Amino acid sequence: INDIYERKTRLSYYLYREARSVMPYGVSSNYRYWEPYPIYLVKGKGSRVWDVDGNEYIDFNMGFGVLEVGHSHPRIVEEVRRAVEDSTILGFEYEKSVELAKIICNRYNVDMVRFSSTGTEATMHAIRIARAYTKRKKIIKFEGHYHGSHDQLLINVNPMRLESRVPTSPGIPEETLSNTLVADWNDYEGFERLVRVHGNDVAAVIMEPVAMNMGLIPADLDFLKGVFDLARDYGFLVIFDEVKTGGKFYSGASGYYGLKPDLIILAKAIAGGLPLSVVAGRRKVMSVIGPEKVAHGGTFNANPLSVKASIFTLTELLTQNNMYYAYRLNSLLSKGYEDIADDLDIDLSVSMWGTSGTIYFAEKVPKNYKEFVRIDQKPWYVYFLNMLAHGIIPMADYDEQWTISIQHTEEDITRHLEVAQMVLKKLKED
Ligand code: PMP
Predict the structure, then answer these.
(1) Strand partners of residue 46
(2) I need a surface site. Which of 227, 281, 293, 349 has the fewest CB within 10 A?
(3) Measured between alpha carbons, how far is 33 from 116 in angstroms, rounded to an integer?
(4) Where are the coiled-coil regions (predicted)?
(5) Same domain membership, residue 323 and residue 283
(6) Is there a catalytic annotation at residue 397?
(7) What is the pLDDT of residues 181-218, one digit of tens each?
(8) Could you list the residue range(s) of the whole structural domain that residue 138 is in?
């Protein structure tokens, strides 16, 4: 356990003790807890956040990938402040949701959209839509891919349990998962075998096209093409869960790979820090939604604050130019970690895509979940606490990745690498 961390975060520790009596593990999301106790934040601005002890951190977690625009971007603050005066929620449809829908259709090459607030909701809706459209029940997901906190896809994903078909959480009835099939990421032969047996009962395959809940493992293009071909042959849909990828490359992973899935899901970064999610796709598929047709609802769906923030984010902030700026800084950070690994001669590999990257304490980047869970994560925790102790939030967990926002600077990257060099050197020596 890291002495500096404990010395610098006394108030977080006291708050944690208090929090535990009113919130399980003292947090509102399991992913915000770590040993020995998490820090509690009070404020964020640009690339920085501050905790209750007054420590300043350069933040690379960026709200688990939400804050591609950085914390409290002044233009978003202004936009939301004005929006609040015109109402935070109107109940009936908000005028500007139409404008936003068109922006998303253009940018992500989809025909129709429906809004909700979180990624979890949108993936849940997507699989319902796919089942209704195909009149089939089975869904194929990939091991290690995360699609939110609802029951139906919460299988074979962190916390790490290697045996196949293990629900990730107690409280999920086996029956709920009886129509969920699990395949290995980037393994075309395995996928084909599964499809040969079940293909005619499959409604959809859902995937994170760049897997970002086991670090960062992009799909091989050939693998993706194979999956699309099989989906066409067997009549099931392809769903891209772009909750993370949608904000980390200008037109998302579908734009990056030049593929058009039947449905995509967007969330996190698209509304500049406010809650907004989207299920979108081909007209004929999305047309199953409607009164007395497929259920889709949500009180906060397309609320004015999120819609206004999103229009502004997509048209003024996450522009091609600004995204290029962030890609470039991401390359610097990734390259910097590779240099450190060479310099110190340690087993550390780097994976990057768009505005994100991650490190693995392994000689090579894992190809799939099975390789990922074999990595010993003990060094990662030492690295993490030491990075925090020196004012850098490198990412949120060993299965996460950093996000470079349009408000990060080259100095932020330099500082990150200086601290990483020092921390990794010490880790090697101990
Ligand atoms: N899909 C993916 C790929 C995600 O990374 C996440 C969240 N990390 C979700 C879905 C769930 O989104 P939310 O937490 O907004 O419900």
Answers:
(1) 71
(2) 293
(3) 26
(4) none
(5) no
(6) no
(7) 999 999 999 999 999 999 999 999 999 999 999 999 99
(8) 74-317
Q: How many whole angstroms separate alpha carbon 72 and alpha carbon 273?
A: 8
Same domain, 311 and 366: no
Ligand 1 atom with the smallest distance to the CA of 145 is 3
ipTM above 0.90, yes or no: yes
Q: Which of 340, 359, 346, 363 is nearest to 428 (CA)?
A: 346
Cα angle 263-266-267, degrees, rounded to a multiple of 5: 150
Best residue among 268, 279, 300 to mutate for probing ligand 1's pocket (most ligand atoms within 8 Å of CB) is 268
Return d(Cα 69, Cα 405) in angstroms, integer. Answer: 5
User: How many distinct structural domains can be found in the chain?
Assistant: 2
Ligand 1 centroid vs 265 CA: distance in angstroms? 10
How many other CB atoms are there within 10 angstroms of residue 370's CB atom? 15
What spacing in Å lies between the alpha carbon of 397 and ligand 1's midpoint?
15
Rounded Cα distance between 137 and 75, Å, is 45
Q: What's the whole-model pTM score? A: 0.97
Instruction: Give the per-residue pLDDT at 417.
Output: 98
